[in-house]
Amino acid sequence: MIVEIGHFALILACLLSLIQSTFPLYGSLKGKGRLMAIAAPAAYGQFLFVTISFAALMYAFVVSDFSVANVARNSHTLKPMLYKISATWGNHEGSILFWTFILSLYGALVAFFGRKLPRTFYVKVLAIQALVGLGFYLFLLLTSNPFERIYPFPMEGNGLNPLLQDPGLAFHPPLLYMGYVGLSVTFSFAVGALIEGRVDAAWARWVRPWTLLAWCFLTAGITLGSWWAYYELGWGGWWFWDPVENASFMPWLVATGLLHSAIVVEKRDTLKAWTILLAIIAFSFSLLGTFIVRSGVLTSVHAFATDPERGVFILMFLFIVIGGSLLLFALRADKLQPGGLFAPISRESMLVINNLLLSVAALVVMFGTLYPLLRDALTGEKITVGPPFFNLAFGFLMIPLILVMGLGPSTSWKRADLMGLASRLKFVFAASLLMAIAVFYAAGGGEIMAGIWLAVGLWLLLSTLYEWAERVKLFKSGALARILRQPRASIGMSFGHLGLAIAVLGMAGTSYWGAEKQEIMSYGDKVSIGGYDVTFENTDGVIGPNYTAVRATFSASRDGGKPQILKPEARVYLTPPMPTTEAAILSRFTGDLFVVIGEANNRAYDQWAVRLYHKPLQVWLWGGVAVMVLGGLISLSDRRFRMGALKGAKK
Amino acid sequence: MRNLLSLIFLVMLSVSAAAVGVDEKRLDDPTQEARAQEIMKQIRCLVCQNQSIVDSDAALARDLRIIVRERIIAGDNDEQILGYMTSRYGDWVLLKPPFDGATIVLWLSPLLLLMVGFYVIYRNQKLRKSNVSSEPLTSEEKQRLEQLLNNEGRK
Question: Residue A215 in contact with residue A185, Cβ under 8 Å?
Fold first, then answer.
């Protein structure tokens, strides 16, 4: 019964979105207040009904109602409660319902916090938001109904892929979806502005907090996924340029560009058409990501379902949304008159270069991801575009980007003095170069690229700190008061850039100075790696709630210090039967020691295959991203963006 | 059909767990073994996603590892070993696509896109500058300007 209520609520939400996307839009074009008044209540109603629908599906998972086909396929009674709940969105139908749930949540948030927006614009934004929702409701109801019943129903479910049974992965999709779908708000604002034919500083100020919010979630979500891959897949990698990773990375790159170009619109009233275009592209990449994942054109770890019918639907939906918005853009873009001019050396130019590099990076990632598909379709030849390509191409674009990042905040708007800039930053540049050389030799040398990344990371770190010190006049009296009085947006910027610098240093450390050993070990054997002496002590049998495991004990000590205990596991899950490895990681500021236990020798049972990794500065990578997200949140709390401030903005 | 696909998917997943083979013979000479590892990192595990044969547990990856080691013992150089692999499995087996006539667009795409981008920015800037300087005021605008200036003067 509850399941049917969920299904019914979904149909109601679909009808509401149809109403919300048509009548208010017509009303706003014809100036009919009564029709416009429908928009906000419809948005709240949609949210209410999708919430009911989503809660009904979650209920079916919690009580293991196997008469629902989706639950029978993806759950199991023995599964811990957390994974029963997370299984709600850990499958195709459920994840799309979850997408739609978040879309309606954002719709309701815009309806609530945007009340003070100009009436006709507000209504248009909500109508566009509902139009996107309509596509997803139809997709759910027509091709991927999560509430489908089966008869006769099985007594036990199929279970959830053991790799997905992990706290990190329970929270990875919600965060990622909050990010993906958050970009829909930016999209609705952009399309709404195109229909209105007006983009100004106020528009940029409304759009930025939503973009920032989506960006924070996207950053956190991508990194959580990467962290999960690092400790769960068990070979010490954290980024694989897997098509699905790329699918989430492309919108991130564009959203990052958008954050920066919206600043130019707000402060200097220029780059308007470009910013609108970025907003459209950012959400298009979100949709493309969904298409890539769900249609199964590129088989990948994440493809829960592959079904041509769904693929065709998403493809048509993509065509309508992306094609339609780009057509509107082409028709209306010349109405967006550019404002202030700027010189080739200016803050604006730095931000234009930032946008160029980020957009090209997103396009290259897309091209590299789709190239094998294109080539296969055109010539029938199969080819692999693997990590070596992406690392090279991406580095080629990111190194100049980071160099410009160090300059940008110190450059003045409109027209900057190149010589002055050079003379202010030359010591910072020299210092980062010298430090990089010193660290490079202290680490015992290595590939030249390692040194370059080190220098680039240090440059960003020092130049960001220098710009902050200059801004608050750190060494003049009253510095403390100035530090505390900084607008939160600029504090956020400093944190964001600082975080990236820390993450870049972490990447350099773990990618270039890592060590890896594969050993056959017996009890009592010793291996040394990354300065640690690791001893294989013994193994134990363990019985978990839905798996059995061999748990090994290793002790690791450095420089004769107190030994640390590591307990990696090799698990075999019962449903579905599948082996997984649980790595043991000793995380320290200077690096991670990572131990994986493999299979036992068939002939001699006290011999085990063991993999050991040393990953220098790995925690810097995670910590750096955390600082970036913190920067985003600080910036989001800036008074300019606080929703109450919108009361003052009349347009 | 869907069940079959999910089964294939599960099998693929299970082989993507870390490769820690125990009964695999490593080469006696550590420099040769290091060379073998370097080569293996460039070869794709054919049944996995974007994974090299070093990282994969799949039986096929194991076979390929054995072949790489055999070739090294036989005295092949790195190119010969990779050539042997591509002659058997095509370019698909290489994680890093070769630089040739067909992939030149791919390899040069970052540079080409950057150049196009810079050109568009340059043209836009030039266009806007000429727009701003050469556009004369319409008579209506002139009239308004005069009016404003007069008002200003009277105050």
Answer: no
- Whether A161 and chain B come into contact, CB under 8 Å, resolves to yes
Q: Rounded to the nearest 5°, which phi and psi values hold at B107? A: -65, -35
- Which residues of chain A make contact with B52, given a CB cutoff of 8 A? 386
Q: ipTM of this predicted complex?
A: 0.81
DSSP string, A520-537: EE-TT-EEEETTEEEEEE
Q: Are A487 and A472 within 8 A, CB to CB?
A: no
**Spatial CA neighbour of A140 closest among A97, A184, A198, A80:** A97
A455, A432 contact by CB (below 8 A): yes
Q: Which residues in chain A touch residue B121, judged by CB atoms under 8 angstroms apart? A: 352, 356
More confident residue, B155 or A80: A80
Chain A: residue nearest B42 by CA? A388
Q: Which of A150, A383, A398 to mutate to test the interface with B (most CBs of B within 10 A)?
A: A383
Whether residue B33 lies within 8 A of chain A, CB to CB, comes out as no
Which of A161, A242, A583 faces B50 most closely, judged by CB atoms?
A: A242
- From chain A, the residues in CB contact with B132 under 8 A are 341
pLDDT band at A288; cut points 50, 70, 90: confident
Residue B81 sits at the vertex; the CA angle it makes with B76 and B87, to the nearest 5 degrees, is: 130
The helix (run of H) or strand (run of E) holding residue A549 is: strand A547-558
A615-650 per-position pLDDT tens digit: 999 999 999 999 999 999 999 888 766 544 444 443
| pLDDT tens digits along A386-432 | 888 898 898 899 999 999 998 888 888 887 778 888 888 889 899 99
Contacts of B122 in chain A (CB under 8 A): none
Comparison of pLDDT for B15 and A456, the residue scoring more: A456
**Can you give the pTM of this predicted structure?**
0.88
Residue/partner pairs of A122-125 with CB below 8 Å, 24 or more apart: A122/A39, A123/A24, A123/A25, A123/A27, A123/A28, A123/A36, A123/A39, A124/A25, A124/A28, A124/A191, A124/A192, A124/A195, A124/A196, A125/A185, A125/A188, A125/A189, A125/A192
Measured between CB atoms, does A70 come within 8 Å of chain B?
no
Give CA–CA dist A142/A520, Å, rounded: 54
Terminal C-alpha separation, chain B? 84
**pLDDT of res. B14:** 38
Chain B interface mutation, best of A150, A235, A254, A336, highest count of B Cβ atoms under 10 Å: A235
User: Which stretch of A363-367, A459-463, A595-599 has the lowest confidence by average pLDDT?
Assistant: A595-599
CB atoms within 10 A of CB A275: 29
Beta partners for residue A585, in sequence order? A594
Q: Rounded to a whole number, what is the distance in Å from the CA of A315 to chain B's nearest CA?
A: 20
Q: Is A382–B10 a contact, with Cβ atoms under 8 angstroms apart?
A: no
What is the token pair recorded at A434? 């010298």
A364 part of contact set with chain B, CB < 8 Å? yes
Under 8 Å between Cβ of A275 and A261? yes
A360/B19 CB distance under 8 A: no
In the predicted structure, residue A283 carries a pLDDT above the cut 90: yes
Kindly list the structural domains of chain B, giving each domain's residue range(s) and its CATH number in brackets, ordered by start. 2-93 (1.10.8.640), 104-154 (no CATH)
pLDDT band, very low/low/confident/very high, at A298 (cuts 50, 70, 90): low
Residue type, A131: L
Chain B residue numbers touching A356 (CB-CB < 8 A): 114, 117-118, 121
Element (H, E) at A585: strand A584-588
B115-129 pLDDT, tens digit each = 999 898 888 777 776
Does B4 touch chain A if contact means CB atoms closer than 8 Å? no
- Closest residue of chain A to B21, computed from CA coordinates: A609
Among all residues of chain B, which has the CA nearest to that of A382?
B92
